[in-house]
Amino acid sequence: MKNVSKVKNCFGCGVCAVSCPKNIIDIRLNDDGFYQPFIDEPDKCIHCKLCVENCAFLHKDLALENRVTGSWCGWSNDSAVLARSASGGIGFEIARHLLHSGYKVCGVRYNANERRAEHFIADSEDALAATMGSK
Ligand code: SF4
Ligand code: SF4
């Protein structure tokens, strides 16, 4: 395979697009509503195969499914956070810890006017509260 232009029904992860030195791979929705790579200007391809080599869909050994993995679970001990969060509040607690350590946190909140989720930077606990239950 020379490049990912013939790949269908892949993960739609976009790794091929960021790997391409010619920046000619566009990730967009196919007719079935799933993301996949498109190369609109195939003449610009230099056949370096970086897109193919970095694709976990084409190289199952790159995928996590063939590796030993661990899993952990956690939740907030703060009943107010638990009540407002969609999945236990552990994300909020980690972000709160980072805020108190001097970091800013990139989160997702629901924009009711636009009727969509959006990323934003939280620099306080009040701002971070918008991430709870946003999804
Ligand atoms: S890297 Fe592979 S799985 Fe990911 S979008 Fe490109 S072709 Fe699809
Ligand atoms: S083979 Fe190289 S230049 Fe061609 S699409 Fe893939 S990464 Fe881009």
Strands ordered across the widest β-sheet: 1-2
Shape: elongated
Query: At the third CATH level, what is the topology name of the largest domain?
Result: Alpha-Beta Plaits
Q: Which spans have pLDDT < 50 for at least 5 consecutive residues?
A: none
Annotated CATH architecture of the largest domain: 2-Layer Sandwich
Mean pLDDT: 91
**Count of alpha/pi helices:** 5
Number of separate strands: 4
Number of domains: 2
Strand count, sense and closure of the main sheet?
2 strands, antiparallel
CA-CA gap between termini:
39 Å
Helix content: 10-25%
For this structure, what is the CATH class of the largest domain? Alpha Beta
* Category by helix and strand content: alpha+beta
Task: Give the DSSP E fraction (strand runs of 2 or more residues).
Answer: 15-25%
Integer-rounded radius of gyration: 20 Å
Order of helices and strands: HEEHHHEEH
Provide an overview of this structure.
- A hairpin with a 5-residue loop joins strand 1 (25-29) and strand 2 (35-39).
- The mean pLDDT is 91.
- The strands form two sheets. Strands 1-2 form a two-stranded antiparallel ribbon. A two-stranded antiparallel sheet has the order 3-4.
- It has five helices and four strands.
- It has two domains: 4-66, Alpha-Beta Plaits (2-Layer Sandwich); 79-131, no CATH class.
- 22% of the residues lie in helices and 18% in strands.
- It is α+β, with helices and mostly antiparallel strands and 135 residues long.
- The radius of gyration is 20 Å and the shape is elongated.
- The chain has helices spanning 15-19, 50-53, 79-84, 90-100, 125-128, and strands spanning 25-29, 35-39, 105-111, 116-122.
- The site of one iron/sulfur cluster has 13 residues, from helix 1.
